[in-house]
Design a protein that fits this description.
Strands 1-2-3 form a three-stranded antiparallel β-sheet, with helices on one face. It is built from one helix and three strands. It is flat. A hairpin with a 7-residue loop joins β2 and β3 (about 25-30). It is an alpha+beta fold. It has a domain at about 5-50.
Length: about 70
């Protein structure tokens, strides 16, 4: 399964990683590699929890274009 992940630095310098297709699935790391490893772990846990509760694994994520 391929999922989009966003990376954004926070005010402390940590990289915040989020998976928009899984509500609440957020992690962080000091480096991009650490943030990516942590979000993979968070995604695995979130998918398992959603499956255990009979929830859809992901929600639909769409792309939209707006003027800049």
């Amino acid at each position: 399964m391929k999922l989009l992940v966003t990376l954004e630095p926070d005010e402390t310098g940590m990289l915040v990683a989020e998976c928009p297709a899984i509500p609440g699935c957020v992690s962080q790391g000091r480096t991009e590699a650490e943030a990516m490893a942590n979000i993979r772990e968070a995604i695995d846990g979130a998918l398992a929890a959603r499956a255990a509760h009979g929830m859809p694994l992901t929600i639909e994520v769409r792309e939209i274009e707006v003027p800049a």
